[in-house]
Amino acid sequence: MKLTATINGVRRTLEVAPRALLIDALRDAGYTSVKRGCETGDCGACTVLVDGVPLASCVVFAGQVEGRVLTTVEGLGTPDRPHPLMEAMVDAGAVQCGFCTPGMILSAKALLDENPDPTAADVKDALDGHLCRCTGYVKQIEAVLDAAARLRTRAAAGGGAR
Amino acid sequence: MKNLAEFQYPESVEAALALLAASPGEARPLAGGTSLVFAADPRTRVLVDLSRVGLRSITLAADGLHLGAMATARAVGRARAVADAGLAGLAEAAAACGSRLLQNQITVGGNVVGLYPWSDLPPVLLALGAVARLRSAAGAREMSVEDLVARHPRRQLKPGELMVEIVVPPAPRHGGSAFLTFGRTAVDYTLCDVAVALELGGDAIKAARVVVGGLRLFPGRLCAAESTLVGEQPVEAVFAAAAAAAMAEVQVANDFRASREYRRELCGVLVRRVLQVAAQRAAGRTA
Predict the structure, then answer these.
(1) A 84-123 residues with CB below 8 A of B?
(2) Which fold does the domain B175-286 belong to in CATH?
């Protein structure tokens, strides 16, 4: 069946099997930042923003996002032009193998879109459901707080946040 | 879902009910999807996606708190209306559903109708005396959550019938509720959970509902524990007696994660702790 959705600002029509999961539809279409971890909704590596809300794409049918607006990490920034969340994750040393990072960045993005000045407790809450097996969790929390500060500075300077 | 052929996207409850009625046995309603994606269900040919039908509102009215079937666990846990209604136990159960990430997807309707032993909302809704509103193309009816979970809720719904709303009666003025769940880790399956709703009158417990979940297929009331409480003062010795009664009456299924004896003991501990919290809340509302 045909599935039409806006992915990272581009309207796309994908051919998917009716029982296809969103994670497979996206990875098959080239969005490989969406990681396949537990496949049971428990690890957060496959997180995608659907209309701005983080969802575990391994427990979502592709058909559920018909007409929706999707964001993956590919839509946030590039190696040349990284999003402040990406920069902050690298600077804090929150990335080791990197497998959990895209999902954490997207949940953090959803948090900062709603609350530009979160507390550490808010960040922990937003990252609940994301498992990391390398660095632990402290550096990711520091990174999100740092990114929030960078985005606020940028907004104050009139640069506008992405 | 090996024979799944299409998705339908109705934009009203009526349109969804018509679609369900048009393909009896072959059309199935789809809410968040967290458990349906795993369903081994060769009969379903059409999934009726409910994401455009509304049913997301959480509102406080004179007859109680109305939870739309498509309201997410995240929304219930954060809703001002739930706090205003004095239903702290409901907010706790909503916040205990899966992880924060999954709470964006888990719905009231899916959590109740798709009942698993570890589902967090049904025990507290049962304790609070909630009522489910069911609709089909043929009409509407109500069923208490207590009756709904006496068997599997999916078997209680008639073909083409949809749970559209849960109504939680207003908390009594001197009422308090609480929910506690316990697993090996924060996200592991529930070994036992307990929900309590208490009402105080004067300096005694006027009414009590104690519900245990996670120990068997369906949650259920612990009636001996409840009658231990009614008429007594809300003090530690009474809570301990209720916990002992709960441990004596509770039926515990076998589970490879923990022995029957361990889970029976765990049930007693949770009953005592949850009663302490609910009694404090009920007393706070008295003041």
Answers:
(1) 107
(2) Enolase-like; domain 1 (3.30.390)
Gap from B259 CA to chain A (nearest CA, Å): 25
The domains of chain B are located at 6-49, 58-168, 175-286
Phi-psi region of B148 (alpha: psi -120 to 50; beta: other; left: phi over 0): alpha
Report how far residue B157's alpha carbon sits from residue B142's, in angstroms, rounded to the nearest whole number.
Answer: 11
User: What pLDDT, in 10s, does the model give residues A118-158?
Assistant: 999 999 999 999 999 998 899 999 999 999 999 999 998 87
The answer for A 2-41 residues in CB contact with B (under 8 A) is: 18-19, 21, 40-41
Domains B6-49 and B175-286 share a fold: no
Last residue of a domain, one of A24, A54, A75: A75
The per-residue pLDDT for range B25-72, each reduced to its tens digit, is 899 999 999 999 999 999 999 999 999 999 999 999 999 999 999 999
Q: What is the domain range of residue A139?
A: 84-156
Put simply, whether A66 touches B (Cβ < 8 Å) is yes
- Which among A40, A47, A61 is the nearest to B33, CB-wise? A61
Mark residue A98 as left, alpha or beta (left: phi above 0; alpha: psi -120 to 50; beta: remaining). left
CA distance B74 to chain A (A): 11
Let me know: does A62 contact A25? Beta carbons within 8 Å. Answer: yes
Which residues of chain A make contact with B98, given a CB cutoff of 8 A?
41, 129
For B97-225, strand residue ranges (E) read 131-136, 139-144, 162-168, 175-183, 190-201, 204-213, 220-221
Number of domains in chain A: 2
Long-range CB contacts (within 8 A, 24+) of B249-255: B249/B222, B249/B223, B249/B224, B249/B225, B250/B212, B250/B215, B250/B222, B251/B215, B251/B216, B252/B215, B252/B216, B253/B215, B253/B216, B253/B217, B255/B191
Q: How far is CA A1 from CA A62, B107, B212, in A?
A: 10, 26, 44
The reply to whether A161 falls in a domain is: no
A88 and A71 inside one domain: no
